[in-house]
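ok trying again, last paste got cut off:
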Amino acid sequence: MKTLPENWSPTVLEGLYLLGAKRREKRLGPLECIQEAYDIFATDEVKAGKKLIETDLDERIPAQVFEAARHFGWIADPSKRTRHPVRLIPDSYAEGAITNSPVTERIPGAELVESIGDFRVTARFKAQFLDGWLAGRRSYWRGKMYAQAQDTTAAAEVGAPEAGRPDESTLGRNVERFDDRKIRISQGLQTAETPAGAGGSQPWPPLLPDLGEAVGGETEHAEVGSEPLSREERLQAFIVAHPGTTLADIKYSARVHTSEFQDWRNDRLKQESVMSQRIEDVLSGATQLKKKPPKTHKD
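nice, full thing came through this time. structure:
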């Protein structure tokens, strides 16, 4: 008996041999084994991070299932067929009657016009295998394939964070980056005094590209050669340091419009522009952070 391909994953091989055991114990029929084998191959692909495509569902996975089915004996040899010879003896029980002794014969190569993987089969067998036995599983995983495509499209369309909410992935990175257990400011700089009239002291020093150099102190355990923070990183870090703050609050405090704020976030607004300076002043603590008043609705 031909061994199974060595490049099949251990998970696939385990699943197939378990199916083989169930079939031997007559707990599953051949058709059930074939259909479950399809699920084993498809599931392994998805868990490995592969995006399924049409050729996977209609050609590659069916070819793998076909090879497994031949190995475990779930299907008869498709290159052979059983024929019942017709009685030709005139005095037989009934002229043209089928005998009780079937004959197995090899199918002529001219009739093997289709292929499943590297194996040549008849058009009838291929239609039965794909559109009969595996039709339901192919339809099921085609639905899964389109669900994968929708998830990918939705992720690509996320773009900028929703107004008033920081992007969660960026937020998570900056929480770790600015955790005061990992980046500690020297003793005299734990609190940065804000200018007069700014509402007292801030519990977090100004979030500048080079924190120690900017405020005249030293940083402990800082990463050597770390790149300066981008505008978006400093923005998200500011939100982390000021729980409950929304993007709308920052825009309101800086007295800038949404379009100007988005231009700043995407580096389309020059650093020396008035609007950029207003936003930077809010992030550095030079301008007091204020909550944006709620909208009033006329009765």
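cool. The first strand starts at residue 80 and ends at 83. The chain has two domains: 10-79+113-156, 168-284.
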